[in-house]
């Protein structure tokens, strides 16, 4: 029996509609939708949604209050760490870790050299020693903080206006009441 390649492709992207709930689910997205996370990394890119706070420096970062943290293991991606570190506001990250009661970050943002530990290896085909890098303790700690630690519930508070954004089940609600828009 011959397989039809179009049928296989259609099956991969098939959408299932559950007749009782009218819930649309895509099989390969089901797992991601079940696990909701607001990673600590996300806080470095959020600010208060009120227009009056947009130009005020005190509106960043949003300060966690009564935060319940969760740690979910993920695979370490050294390339991602190297690329994201220059984009972080390091002072804001240090403030957030202190407010959450997490271990203190170094005074300065780690350099690329501090993220990898060179490991001498022998290349089998040439018989010469090569250099291969392994993630350093610093890289592993940053990965744990930024990518594996998430806020499951609590509040995010604006340092300028004091508005509180609720975080429930790993999702922050940034919808403002009509009188604050």
Automatic annotation (TrEMBL):
Pfam families: Trm112p. Residues 110-136 are annotated as: Disordered. One of its GO terms (molecular function) is protein heterodimerization activity. Transmembrane segments: none annotated. GO terms for biological process: rRNA (guanine-N7)-methylation; tRNA methylation. Belongs to the TRM112 family. PANTHER family: MULTIFUNCTIONAL METHYLTRANSFERASE SUBUNIT TRM112-LIKE PROTEIN (PTHR12773:SF0), UPF0315 PROTEIN-RELATED (PTHR12773). This is Trm112p-domain-containing protein. It comes from Meristemomyces frigidus. The lineage of its organism: Eukaryota, Fungi, Dikarya, Ascomycota, Pezizomycotina.
């Amino acid at each position: 029996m011959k397989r039809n390649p179009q049928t296989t492709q259609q099956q991969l992207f098939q959408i299932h509609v559950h007749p009782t709930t009218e819930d649309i689910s895509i099989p390969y997205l089901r797992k991601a939708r079940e696990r909701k996370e607001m990673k600590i990394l996300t806080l470095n890119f959020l600010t208060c949604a009120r227009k009056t706070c947009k130009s005020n420096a005190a509106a960043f970062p949003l300060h966690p209050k009564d935060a319940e943290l969760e740690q979910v293991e993920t695979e370490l991606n050294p390339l991602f760490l190297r690329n994201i570190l220059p984009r972080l506001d390091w002072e804001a990250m240090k403030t957030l870790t202190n407010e959450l009661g997490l271990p203190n970050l170094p005074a300065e943002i780690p350099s690329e050299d501090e993220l990898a530990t060179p490991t001498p290896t022998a290349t089998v085909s040439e018989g010469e020693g090569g250099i291969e890098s392994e993630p350093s303790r610093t890289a592993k700690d940053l990965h744990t903080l930024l990518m594996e630690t998430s806020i499951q519930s609590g509040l995010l508070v604006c340092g300028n206006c004091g508005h509180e954004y609720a975080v429930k089940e790993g999702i922050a609600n940034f919808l403002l009441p009509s009188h604050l828009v």
